[in-house]
Every structure is written in structure tokens, then in C-alpha cells.
Amino acid sequence: MKKLSLIFAASLLVSPLALADVVVIGHSAGPDSITDNQVRDLYLNRSKQLPDGQKAIPFEMSGGDPVRAQFHDKVTGRNAAQLKAFWSKQVFTGRGQPPAELSSAAAMKARVSSTPGSIGYIDEADVDSSVKVILKP
Q1: Is residue 14 part of a domain?
Q2: Using one digit for the tens of pLDDT, what is the confidence trace for 45-68?
Q3: Which of 42, 46, 74, 121 is the most exposed place for a label (fewest CB within 10 A)?
């Protein structure tokens, strides 16, 4: 029992460190900042433009990715099941398609850095000079 308590206590100390902060990234020619509400509207198909007027192209991490869960928890307030239901309805009614999914932070940075008007999100530890951070939710 004592061993189990030690393992549980150790997991409490490690788990906050395991989740770094998610950041929203943008193309170098895009806006320097964006609000939580603007990002939420882009990812929930309520808006199609960035703050500077460019057509927005949001990208999403693959389902099951912990960074995706953290992003949606902080920004859209929806879990995986809610997002799936939301996008199913959007597609069925012809209102829109979900953002394209990418499998890794490297793929996200490559796509955002090469696509004007695009935004995405990654773990802050993965940010490099190829993209710029436009929001820390």
C-alpha cells in the first residue's frame, strides 16, 4: 500500500510537467497576434478570416493527440466527442469541412510556414523560427 501511495504521489509531481503549454502559431506573413475568441471562431467554422483580413486556413493535430486535447480544452471548450459531433453536423448540412489534420508538430510547422493565411497549434517547446507564435491561450 505504501508503494502504491509513493507511485501516486510521484505521478502527481510529474504530470503537470508532462503537459507543456500549447501555443497558436501562424505564417510569417500573417498577423502578429490573434485573440482567443478569434481562434475559437476559426476552429468552430464561425469565421473564415484572420484579423488582418486574409483568408484563414486552420490546421488541426490528429485525433488523440494530447496537444489537440489541450488546445480544444483551452480555446474551444470542447472535447473530442463534442468536436466529432459538431463537424458531423457541419458536413451533413453543407456548412463546412473540418480543418485538415496533421500528424506531428514538425508537419504542423512545415504546413503553417509554407501556407500563407494559415494557423495551427503546437506545444510551445516545439516552436522554432519557421513560424511565429500569435497566441498563448
Answers
A1: no
A2: 999 999 999 999 999 999 999 999
A3: 46
